[in-house]
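Q: What changes when alpha-L-arabinofuranose is included in the input?
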Amino acid sequence: MKKKLLSLMVLFCSLTGYAQNTGKLNAPSDPNLKISRHIYGHFAEHLGRSIYGGFYVGEDNTKIPNTNGVRNDVVEALKTLKVPNLRWPGGCFADTYHWKDGIGPKDQRPTIVNSWWGGVTENNSFGTHDFLNMCELLGAEPYLAGNMATGLVQELSDWVQYVNFAGDSPMSKLRRENGRDKPWNVKFWGIGNEAWGCGGNMAPDYYANEYRKYATFVADWDNSGGLFRIASGANSADYNWTEVLMKNIPKNLIEGVALHHYSVIDWNKKGPTRGFSEEQYFKTMKSALFMEELINKHTAIMEKYDPQHKVALVVDEWGGWYDVEPGTNPGFLYQQNTMRDAMIAGATLNIFNNHCDRVKMANLAQAINVLQAVILTEDEKMLLTPTYHVMEMYNVHQDATFLPLELKSADFTFGNEKLPAVSGSASRDQQGVTHITLTNIDPKKSNQISIDVQGSKFKSVSGRILASKSIQDYNSFDNPNKIKPANFKGAKLRGNNLNVELPPFSVVVLELK
Ligand code: AHR
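A: The predicted holo structure follows.
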């Protein structure tokens, strides 16, 4: 009888285009395990129109409202997003950046050539004070990426002293001369970036040795025990990199090891941002979902050398990477942002949340006008991308208690290949409200999901959804609000059962009370 019912259901689902999924919401595995808010971090590099025109338009700009040169519209949007941390000044740029070029009177700052990104002239008008004051404005913690490829240990050590030392020292004196009395107390420090590539093409054991030297002098000048040093991590599936770093770097010198992974189809044939094919969509999502395997394998290595979980996995570059928008500078990495990007964001953030025992920080690449941006600007115009909306919907998880959500998902198939269509994650916030985020990446099929909430005694469910007519849709400067979250009516509570109907390529956040 049961079998008959099941096959009838399968027949019904395949005829109607619905796929059936099941889930179970568990009690916290560890009541102290939180989804770190820093998983929702961002990244701002001196690249294309990220800083200049994106964040910063200059103090003298009368056309675009700004505070000390930083766009007010951007500040408001990023405050709503609850940006917990912002990584700067790179990326590859970080290993060419000499921070002393960016302090002092702006008209006396030297110009340099941004050799990684378009060969443009950089006038250093946005420097350390500008960035750290902007972080204060945003309520975000700064994450400074230090130069270890073309900068000496002394230079990095001086930077730490310049921004963090409260007492009297040559560097704190210089800071005060430049108008800032109190230190900013920067906690997050990257020691180099992509040391296996643009950061010096180093071998892992060589980098590990260099790291030990540099990290020794990224010191806590006030002895408050608060610095968080992040080693330049593996390129995607380079597990040997993580192995060598975890083996060779003493645990008293490291708080985080990075990982970079972009959702890219093929580095030599990335495909268009807009007007992508079904195959290209599938391949992008395959690359995005590969994050799960990457985290499992890198954390298994970390577990071997650090079973106490002292060292965090920091995915400080992730996101979709396509061909630049036609007609734009190839070195500026400017791309539009479609519902495909919303799918990458929703699925990837679920993966990070579900690995919050080791993933303590992540940074979407990048915040404005570069790669998978949350904001695009065009002179005085600004728009919020579908990715922005996903990150805003998911911010309910920031610092909330992690609730394990077991899901059995239907497949999203293309040719002979398949991916799980539905992903999800859950948490309980400080007010006792439970949130579940779900993403259905299937571009054609709705997915029904039945979640056993196991006696949680919820009285109500409400939600919001991000969806659109076509997976190709995006917000443009002519139609900036085409895609935005709407109220969601597709979730019903019946006793212990939460039933959710997810439309094709949609992201949903549910609130259960
Ligand atoms: O985010 C763009 C670039 O991608 C970064 O500068 C670099 O670290 C990575 O290769």
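Observations recorded in class: Residues 45, 90-92, 193-194, 317, 365-366, 371 surround alpha-L-arabinofuranose (CB under 6 Å).
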